[in-house]
Write a structure and sequence with these properties.
Layout (H helix, E strand, L loop, with lengths): L3 E6 L2 H9 L6 E6 L2 H10 L3 E5 L9 E3 L7 H20 L1 E4 L2 E4 L4 E4 L2 E4 L2 H12 L6 H9 L9 H17 L5 E4 L2 E4 L1
Parallel strand pairs: 1-2, 1-3, 3-4
Antiparallel strand pairs: 5-6, 6-7, 7-8, 9-10
Length: 187
């Protein structure tokens, strides 16, 4: 398992304490005092948590300690809880091209624009995204709806049509779900 980088930002006392405990922790402890370096580390490190004295509102993965003193056991507990929460949140997001699909809220997000999806729409997007090849109507019927492929229905086409319409109206995007001769695909 990869070690998570604990980046201690402008908080030398905490850095010294954690360095003393380093052999008992499963973290890489790094001290940073410059915001530019912090931003560079954010871009290069996949697994990190910034610990700071006061919130800088620079990063999503930040844990501030403005109520000091704190017991070491409580400190480690807060760090672990924050890491578990952030790992859960990372697993509940899919990055699909220029969009982020939030699986918890069923929203497709581009920058700050959010499109609310139905459960079926989210399932269609996930299923198409996970496939490397175009998916036919019968396969979508059986896998997303659980329908027998022998049924005569236009459910898939109707859902794809409505989803494309929503995507165009919200994001001005006509190319997210593409029609191929073998079915539908997300690129």
């Amino acid at each position: 398992m990869d070690r998570i980088n604990l980046i201690i930002f402008k908080f030398n006392t905490l850095y010294e304490i954690l360095k003393e405990l380093d052999e008992y922790l499963n973290f890489e402890i790094i001290e940073v005092s410059n915001e530019k370096i912090l931003e560079e580390m954010k871009l290069t490190s996949k697994k990190f948590l910034v610990l700071t004295k006061k919130s800088n509102e620079i990063l999503d993965l930040e844990l501030d300690f403005d109520n000091l003193p704190i017991k070491v056991t409580k400190l480690l507990e807060r760090i672990n809880i924050h890491i578990i929460k952030s790992q859960f949140n990372q697993k509940s997001e899919l990055h699909i091209g220029r969009y982020k699909l939030d699986l918890n809220s069923r929203e497709l997000i581009e920058k700050k624009i959010k499109l609310k999806l139905t459960e079926k729409e989210a399932n269609i997007i996930i299923f198409l995204y996970n496939s490397k090849t175009p998916i036919g109507i019968n396969k979508l019927q059986s896998e997303v709806w659980g329908y027998n492929s022998e049924l005569e229905t236009h459910t898939v086409e109707t859902h794809i049509y409505r989803l494309r319409k929503k995507l165009f109206e919200k994001f001005n995007d006509n190319n997210f779900i593409q029609s191929k001769k073998d079915g539908y695909q997300i690129k």
